[in-house]
Amino acid sequence: MSRTRLYHALLLATLAATPHAAHALRVDYVVDLIVERNDNLLLTADDPIALTILRPGLGFDVVHDSSTLQTRITGRAEYRRYGDDRFGDVVDGTLDARVHWVAIPERLSFTVADSLTLQPVDTLAADTPGNRQQVNVLSAGPSLSFEWGDGWRGSTELRYVRSEAEISDEFNSERIDLALRATKRLAPTSRLALNLQTQRVDFQRDVIARDYTRSEFFARYSRTLNRLDFAIDAGYSQLDYTRDLPGRAGARSDPMLRTELTWRPNDSHRFEAQFSSAFSDVASGSLASVGEDSGLPTGVVTGDTVVNASPFLERRLDTGYAYTSTRWTASVTPYLDRLRYADSDEFDQNGYGAGLEISWRARRNLMLGFSGALDRNEYVNLDREDETRRYAGYARLDWTRHWSAMLTLAHYARESTAAGQDADQNVIGLTISYNNR
């Protein structure tokens, strides 16, 4: 997949989002230049390569909301100039776009969603210039709503999904998603929904990837109160493969459970917890959060997703606490994760970790902050354990309403039971940015 897809997707999405009423459109953007010094670009244990890298970039967040068109397009493009003949200059980008058009109110609508991310080619290797690829997932199709009587409202959804990876082409596929849903309001604060959905996946490289159908049936109960939100999904899911492989099952099934809990005891404190036990895959996970308000992106970050053709059973617990005051914000986010792949057990893993973020507005135009993260993964069939630690501090000075400068110091450390995989890295960066808001 060519990286120029970023610009094509951005152009098409922007044209689709352009409203007839200009006042309904909000565009936020930031233009910046990042100069950073990296003392171990390739994350090697011996003979580190130190380079100064230039990273001019553009981040944007386009929102339009009316009775017939709802649009959110968030993304960033970044040019990395290494200034060394051993590393070619490259343009990386991310894009998160959702366009929802209501053709017939309360009856017929069309939705287009796109997720473009930067992911590793080899998840077991360090994040280096040669270990990155663009991954794109596009979804489009209609939704039809109707009344079922006795307070029930139904809908059917049809989606065509196309997934592409720049290098890991076993991931490339075409999918058809079909869903039937029924929703009933039980009380002003509670709702019940029944969901039946199926997904047919057709991989382009059938030699190394097995086509399959994933079907799910589950009920969802949700309740929203003044200080407490709660939701639970409970049901059953099944994988059916079109062909068998020696040593691999032709079908798999498992109960499905998802819970979400948010408690806000007051305006300053927020507690969250989510648990999930369900089948998933990379393409479905990429589209899960498209269209959410994630803020104006200020960097292109390489993810940690295993980009392959195999669906997986994931059991994950995420918890979080956030504190907000006039001058302070803080959050801590521990998690537990267990992945079991259906087609290849090489990347089966048990993981845990936590993240910490703290910021303090020292003066009206000066913000200080610190972040830290610990991630530990055990690859159960590789006899390997990896532990990564990330620390970063920053100071941001707002010269004017639009112009700002930020100094960052970051440290990355990786310890592994695999030979030659231990490494650490220090990065110092200076960012000059212009924000239109």
Layout of secondary structure:
Layout: H1 5-17, E1 25-38, E2 51-65, E3 69-80, E4 90-104, E5 108-119, E6 133-149, E7 152-165, E8 173-187, E9 190-203, E10 212-224, E11 228-241, E12 251-263, E13 269-280, H2 282-287, E14 312-324, E15 328-341, E16 349-363, E17 366-379, E18 384-398, E19 403-416, E20 423-435
Antiparallel strand pairs: 1-2, 1-20, 2-3, 3-4, 4-5, 5-6, 6-7, 7-8, 8-9, 9-10, 10-11, 11-12, 12-13, 13-14, 14-15, 15-16, 16-17, 17-18, 18-19, 19-20
Please tell me about this protein's structure.
The protein is mainly beta. It has one domain (5-435): Maltoporin, Chain A. The chain is built from two helices and 20 strands. The chain has helices at residues 5-17, 282-287, and strands spanning 25-38, 51-65, 69-80, 90-104, 108-119, 133-149, 152-165, 173-187, 190-203, 212-224, 228-241, 251-263, 269-280, 312-324, 328-341, 349-363, 366-379, 384-398, 403-416, 423-435. The protein has a 20-stranded antiparallel beta barrel. It is globular. It starts with a helix and ends with a strand.
